[in-house]
């Protein structure tokens, strides 16, 4: 088989792999979309696209029961899976592309469980699943077509970006995600292949996943004050985003995988279930909370809500669950941006709360992803805002990057400096 494939010109093999990967990732996005809707229908008995209404339409007991059962099922599944098999992250697949072949069944079932717990109300993101399956597909295609090691890594990264593009309909932001977060070099060839895979996945998934923005809000325009607001939010929100990124990274690195997961993960789901009885806004990946604020509805005790939301993400990841942090980061950025803007206005400023939410989300995403361009463009794509709004959003996310580097340098110097005797 290898000899037959190698007869084809190398450029044709690369192009074929990219096209098939784009189409395959589009199908992955469609599958994740319908799986999520199917889980929500099974769990809560409704098909309302307004997630808060969907959660509220179910009885208090049903929400409690669904989350508790999900905790036990997820704990048992991940304990058994990880006792028998190894799960490779996207970066690990890229690093070990010439040495390992991830088990397709293991990674597919792992992805399905991630989508399932989000559909049942877990406080983690759903984007991890399509990215991981897209990366798996990219690795398989590139090996089948006998591509070089560098192109195998490129196709794995392209698959991750294409999966993200398909499920959220953000092809340009997903392309930047591949370049900024996954460390692919910015050559014209790489950029072209990334764009082809991401836009093809988006195009194929669009008729079924939908091409409207993920969040509904009025269209905004910037003013001169928006740039001052961007700098203020970058200064205040960046340390919060860095703290959340550090906690979730630490949680994932030290994730419980032994027998303790059977006890600890259901306890976290139980705690979430108890809170969700009276406050279903805590359920899901953060989309409910973000949409509530973007619809200009007040949320009492917002600082406490943000702390609890971030805490649930941390506890789920630390105690054995898998999932993304992109959508939770967006929601936390929306809330932090709104909160800081309200406080600033009470001190005499006249900032737009709506603009503050988008700037906060841009800072939070850019910081947690370590990708300022991706953060700003994701905010535009998620909310359907005009392209001109990218100016203050980019200022906020790029300023946040500079601040995070300064804070990281200060922390590293503090660690290296010996304490006085």
Automatic annotation (TrEMBL):
Q: Does the keyword Transport apply?
A: yes
One Pfam family matching this protein:
Voltage_CLC
Main location (coarse class): membrane
For molecular function, the Gene Ontology terms on record are: chloride channel activity
The way this protein sits in the membrane is described as: Multi-pass membrane protein
Q: Does the keyword Metal-binding apply?
A: no
Its keywords, alphabetically, are: Chloride, Chloride channel, Ion channel, Ion transport, Membrane, Transmembrane, Transmembrane helix, Transport
What residue ranges are annotated as transmembrane?
A: 12-36, 61-81, 102-122, 154-179, 191-209, 229-248, 260-281, 301-317, 329-351, 371-395
User: Where, subcellularly, is it found?
Assistant: Membrane
PANTHER family according to UniProt: CHLORIDE CHANNEL PROTEIN CLC-E
State the name under which the record lists this protein: Chloride channel protein
Q: Which organism is it from?
A: Streptococcus oralis
